[in-house]
């Protein structure tokens, strides 16, 4: 009977979802290469109590119908792929992408994943891996006795090994791009997995054909803006309050009606 | 004599609807491009509509199409309209109108809405060149979309003379009545990197909610008072 209560409840759920998303964005403020998410909402279907054109006041066809909405539903969460700030770390295996593209990595169980986190390390086998140990693909080996590694903007990586004064080429870092990067699914641990919505990856050389260029000794900060998130948090909290007010007011109306019977 | 309770129950029915509309507006305070609903009531003129309609109150829900605030997001595929007009979305059931311009690209590079339906351009859906970076898409204030400096299409924007002929379909969709007359060049500006917030004003809705609750109480009071007075008449008659 009293649809208003459930309508207001959908409003509260929506605001809860906004707060959850903001909380996740804020928690990842210092996560390298993190991209903030945003929730989108849509109004729910309308219940038509009378069709437009049905006979109305004074026998004249009503120009408007009587449609009452039934609340709100979350439509999707959207990853916002804007560039994060680049921070100079002076660490020679920190590589940031300036522009479009993702590093391709192979996980422990052989799956291909993508990441913006270019804070690399060398594992026990001498291969270049991410901070959570996933191997960079195509894999690059760092020989024992390497003094200095240099990574160029186009992804070529070379090293001075042992006492040699000529750099030894080690390989090439490539980048992957998607038609719709917002369609990638987040897997946690800074990894993104391709989906039907994202399309398949195209790989290419950094700095060419619209691929971003690489910056050695830099890390990409998350693109979370604290002020923006906090303002959204306050708005969400107030909207939550107002929707709960609507439930309370609806409850009062029902209780007034109940008192009538007694 | 039976008129008063009848009138009051109609009144209460109407207030309940009004409360539902307010709850729906409040639930959509964070929905991009949402337009609030408002209720107007008109009493039925008994002499014209016949005695049966006496005391009936006709409710009328209309959409308040006032501009929502433009919120800056800096996301290139967030576009907001300023002025009276709508983005057009293509669906198997025909075109749908929306004010929610939070677009994205699908795996074919086509510009789509939040529900993956192609957004109409002047010459069909707009497709980005292969592997163009969606972050570098430019959308001018007249709706021209360009990628890499080259124009690839123009967003179709429709306006109507009589906005009351648009029906709501949920999911932010509006559908125009076949009788609705389109405006050839709607006076709108497209703002890239912005979203149009819901035009629901929390304070306004709260005030409406308080007024509705109180009027509802008063309506019920009228019914109970009527019952009491009937009882006292009976008591007088019985004694």
Set out the fold topology:
The complex is a heterodimer of chains A (262) and B (239).
Chain A: H1 3-27, E1 37-43, E2 46-50, E3 66-69, E4 72-79, E5 86-88, E6 95-98, E7 103-106, E8 112-115, E9 121-122, E10 128-129, E11 135-136, E12 146-151, E13 156-161, E14 168-172, E15 175-177, E16 185-188, E17 191-193, E18 202-204, E19 213-216, E20 218-220, H2 226-261
Antiparallel strand pairs in A: 1-4, 2-3, 5-20, 6-19, 7-8, 7-11, 9-10, 12-13, 13-14, 15-18, 16-17
Chain B: H1 3-27, E1 37-43, H2 46-49, E2 57-63, E3 70-72, E4 79-82, E5 86-91, E6 94-98, E7 104-105, E8 111-112, E9 120-121, E10 124-125, E11 138-139, E12 144-147, E13 150-154, E14 157-160, E15 166-170, E16 173-176, E17 182-183, E18 189-192, E19 194-196, H3 202-238
Antiparallel strand pairs in B: 1-2, 3-19, 4-18, 5-6, 5-14, 7-8, 9-10, 11-12, 12-13, 14-17, 15-16
Helix pairs in contact in B: 1-3
Describe the structure.
The complex is a heterodimer of chains A (262) and B (239). With 262 residues, chain A is α+β, with helices and mostly antiparallel strands. Chain A has a domain at 86-220. Chain A has two helices and 20 strands. Chain A has helices spanning 3-27, 226-261; strands spanning 37-43, 46-50, 66-69, 72-79, 86-88, 95-98, 103-106, 112-115, 121-122, 128-129, 135-136, 146-151, 156-161, 168-172, 175-177, 185-188, 191-193, 202-204, 213-216, 218-220. In chain A, the strands form nine sheets. A three-stranded antiparallel sheet of chain A has the order 8-7-11, with no helix packed on it. In chain A, strands 12-13-14 form a three-stranded antiparallel sheet, with no helix packed on it. In chain A, strands 1-4 form a two-stranded antiparallel ribbon. In chain A, helix 1 runs antiparallel to helix 2. The radius of gyration of chain A is 27 Å and the shape is elongated. Chain A starts with a helix and ends with a helix. By secondary structure, chain B is α+β, with helices and mostly antiparallel strands. Chain B folds into two domains: 9-66 and 200-238, no CATH class; 70-196, no CATH class. In chain B, 28% of the residues lie in helices and 31% in strands. Chain B has helices spanning 3-27, 46-49, 202-238; strands at 37-43, 57-63, 70-72, 79-82, 86-91, 94-98, 104-105, 111-112, 120-121, 124-125, 138-139, 144-147, 150-154, 157-160, 166-170, 173-176, 182-183, 189-192, 194-196. In chain B, strands 6-5-14-17 form a four-stranded antiparallel sheet, with no helix packed on it. In chain B, strands 11-12-13 form a three-stranded antiparallel sheet, with no helix packed on it. In chain B, strand 9 (120-121) and strand 10 form a beta hairpin. In chain B, helix 1 (3-27) runs antiparallel to helix 3. The longest helix of chain B has 37 residues, at 202-238. Chain B is elongated and about 95 Å long. The interface between A and B is large, with 73 and 68 residues.
């Amino acid at each position: 009977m009293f649809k208003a209560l459930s309508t207001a409840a959908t409003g509260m759920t929506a605001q809860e979802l906004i707060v959850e998303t903001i909380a996740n964005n804020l928690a990842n403020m210092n996560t390298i290469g993190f991209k903030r998410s945003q929730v989108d909402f849509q109004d729910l279907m309308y219940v038509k109590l009378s069709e437009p054109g049905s006979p109305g006041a004074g026998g004249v066809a009503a120009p408007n119908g009587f449609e009452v909405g039934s609340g709100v539903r979350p439509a999707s969460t959207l990853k916002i792929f804007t560039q994060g700030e680049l921070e100079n770390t002076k660490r020679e295996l920190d590589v940031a992408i300036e522009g479009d593209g993702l590093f391709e990595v192979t996980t422990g169980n052989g799956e291909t994943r993508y990441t913006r986190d270019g804070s690399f390390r060398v594992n026990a086998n001498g291969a270049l891996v991410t901070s959570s140990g996933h191997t960079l693909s195509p894999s690059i080996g760092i020989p024992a006795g390497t003094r200095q590694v240099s990574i160029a903007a186009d992804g070529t990586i070379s090293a001075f090994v042992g006492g040699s004064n000529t750099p030894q080429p080690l390989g090439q870092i490539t980048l992957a791009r998607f038609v719709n990067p917002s369609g990638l699914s987040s897997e946690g641990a800074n990894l993104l997995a391709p989906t039907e919505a994202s399309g398949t990856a195209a790989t290419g050389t950094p700095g060419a054909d619209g691929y971003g260029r690489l910056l050695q000794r830099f890390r990409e900060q998350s693109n979370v803006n604290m002020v923006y998130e906090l303002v959204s948090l306050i708005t969400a909290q107030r909207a939550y309050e107002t929707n709960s007010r609507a439930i309370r007011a609806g409850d009062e109306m029902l209780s007034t009606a109940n008192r009538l019977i007694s | 004599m039976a008129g008063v309770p009848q009138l009051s129950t109609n009144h209460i029915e109407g207030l309940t609807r009004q409360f539902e509309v307010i709850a729906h507006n409040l639930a959509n305070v964070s929905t991009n491009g949402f337009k609030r609903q408002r209720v107007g009531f008109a009493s039925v003129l008994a002499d014209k509509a016949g005695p049966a309609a006496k005391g009936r109150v006709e409710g009328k829900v209309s959409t308040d199409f006032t501009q929502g605030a433009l919120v800056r997001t800096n996301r290139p595929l967030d576009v907001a309209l300023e002025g009276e007009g709508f983005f057009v979305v293509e669906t198997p059931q025909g075109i749908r109108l929306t004010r929610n311009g939070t677009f994205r690209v699908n795996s074919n590079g086509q510009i789509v809405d939040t529900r993956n339906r192609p957004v109409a351009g002047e010459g069909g859906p707009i497709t980005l060149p292969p592997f163009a970076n969606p972050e570098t898409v430019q959308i001018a204030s007249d709706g021209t979309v360009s990628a890499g400096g080259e124009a690839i299409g123009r967003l179709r924007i429709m306006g109507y003379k009589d906005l009351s002929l648009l029906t709501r379909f949920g999911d932010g969709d509006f559908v125009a009545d076949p009788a609705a007359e389109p405006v050839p060049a709607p006076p709108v500006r497209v703002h890239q990197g912005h979203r149009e917030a819901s035009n629901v004003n929390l304070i306004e809705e709260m005030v409406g909610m308080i007024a509705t609750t109180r009027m509802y109480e008063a309506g019920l009071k009228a019914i109970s008072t009527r019952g009491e007075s009937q009882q006292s008449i009976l008591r007088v008659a019985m004694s």
